[in-house]
């Protein structure tokens, strides 16, 4: 089993953003982060973190995935099948925001047996705090990266 903690955010929102993930399997730990120096959103970064973590896994495994985003947890466990059934429209018949990331997250989840958990952010959960630090690092690295 792999235990994953993820976080994402922006300053300001919308604005530059970052995501972070901590993956643990037995004694192995992998820290991941990245960011977007442009105008992104908290929700896009919160979605990107579990996508990148799940896509980094090299074989199908059982995953316990912890997020402090109710948007991500509710979206993937409660709302996404209805959105898909409705042609990616909300109950109010509006286009689902971040549909590209929801579809990518669905595909990443399909490769594994994922159980989702919500954890209160900034509440002293060590790997959630680390994921938050990684998200901040990812954002800063994206901002500081030279333009190509």
Write the layout of secondary structure elements.
Elements: E1 2-10, E2 15-25, E3 28-40, H1 42-56, E4 62-67, H2 70-85, H3 99-110, E5 113-118, H4 126-144
Parallel strand pairs: 1-4, 4-5
Antiparallel strand pairs: 1-2, 2-3
Helix pairs in contact: 1-3
InterPro entries: RNase_H (IPR050092), RNaseH-like_sf (IPR012337), RNaseH_domain (IPR002156), RNaseH_sf (IPR036397), RNaseHI (IPR022892)
Subunit structure: Monomer.
GO molecular function: magnesium ion binding; nucleic acid binding; RNA-DNA hybrid ribonuclease activity
Question: What is the topology, as strand order, of the major beta sheet?
Answer: 3-2-1-4-5
Into which percent range does the helicity of residues fall?
A: 40-55%
Number of helices: 4
Judging from the principal axes of the Cα atoms, what is the shape? Answer: globular
**End-to-end C-alpha gap:** 39 Å
How do the SSEs run, as a string of H and E? Answer: EEEHEHHEH
State the CATH architecture.
Answer: 2-Layer Sandwich
CATH-defined topology: Nucleotidyltransferase, domain 5
